[in-house]
Amino acid sequence: RPLQSLSYSTRVQHREIIAAKNPSINAFVNVSQPPRDIPQDLPLSGLTVAVKDNIATSFLPTTCSSTMLKDFVSPFDATVVKILQRNGADIIGKTNCDEFGMGSLNIHSVHGPVKNPFNASKEGTTKDERAAGGSSGGSAAAVAAGMCDAALGTDTGGSVRLPASYCGVIGFKPSYGLVSRWGVVSYADSLDTVGLFANDIPTIQRVFDQIAVYDGLDPTSAPVEIREKAYSHSMERLTSQKTETSILEGLKIGIPQEYFPSEMASSIVEPIRKIIQALKSRGAEIVPVSLPSTSYALSSYYVLASAEASSNLARYDGIQYGKYVEPGPGVDLSKTAQVYAQTRTANFGQEVKKRILLGTYALSADAFGNYFLQAQRIRQLVKDDFNAVFSIPNYFTDMPGSVKDGVDVLIHPSAIRTAPRLAESEDEKSSLDSYVQDVLTVPASLAGLAALSVPVVETTNKEGAQALPIGVSVVGQWGTDDLVLSVGRAVA
Ligand code: GLN
Fold first, then answer.
1. Looking at the domain assignment, is residue 299 inside a domain?
2. What global pTM score does this model have?
3. Does a structural domain hold residue 238?
4. Which atom of ligand 1 is nearest to 191's Cα?
5. How far apart are CA 138 and CA 116, in angstroms?
């Protein structure tokens, strides 16, 4: 798609597509009125952008797909939303997600599950319908179904990359701290990032260039000097003689051996192998690498994310935040814990409650050393693994010297499988299976790295039927986001 301003009629058109398709896909939970007076000469003029419903907007509700915030309208806009609007984007609506971002299938939502546009049907849930992936499933499905040009999601442990992979669109998780989290409802602050979906990389780049700016309102926003250091170091790889198609010439791509676990479906491996072969024949140097702590990353992630969530979600007590539930008979109003408990019991869903309990336990005096502290140690080992293979140092946290002969980027499958059937996912609600789906995305989250999922073009499967989408991930050192996007262009 050419990067020109979209006309008013295109914006109306996207709303018509939403009206036609949303009843079956359930990607949007609220749609805005088309703005009439967008200046045509701004960087994002007329681009329709959907926003995940855990990012605050003053003009539409922000529910986080939770009963707790069902009627909540934020008094302010998130920094990302302000930037988009200031630059001419049309915020077309808010998208469905897992409650507070917790989930991998977008089935834990007060608005109901999102259906993968790949196989959505109008007549209730059929047995072949697929999950869109989560937690930003609404944003991924909205882009896949042509309801908008781009969408914002959040990615704490894979919530942009996993649904992108399942829905066959591009999903980008920028390096931690590059995009402001001000106005993004916290799940696990040390991991939360704002990510992007689109059908092509130029659109991702166009939006990313605007939103990746320092914001004094977010205490974890990366300082300008550090951004520039990482940027210029990584861009040395893309010297001026290299044309866009020859960016692969001499590029060192690492293939982490631990990213092909036994749980991986066989249908994933072959297409990824083909892509790696193609990159090699186009001039890239393919290097097998090892990230030995990978197998511990998932457990570490779920302990840390739940611990942070239990603390963050304490604010929803019905008094300060959240929908207050009138205490029933027998509740002693002088005991605030009993009053809070009414609200929290009624308004949080099962998955959120489970995370709060798990996280509170991990932070308790008895369990702290064995769980929280151990998980933090593993997180450091995961970071060390990455720092030992990348040619560029991590300018954000560690600042070690460069690794001689290190790789420029890593490439691996985005997920261990294609989108599961929605009917099966409903049964999996309480099982560990949905956690395992994040096994390939959480390491980059723990280390705060840039990670992009690009759909693999594989139109038919062995039986000749239309194949389900598969994603391949390009992961780069902290702050090398533009390099990752450039490599993504060559892969896409
Ligand atoms: N599925 C993971 C979780 O439930 C990741 C979620 C996310 O990235 N927001 O925690």
1. no
2. 0.95
3. yes
4. 8
5. 9
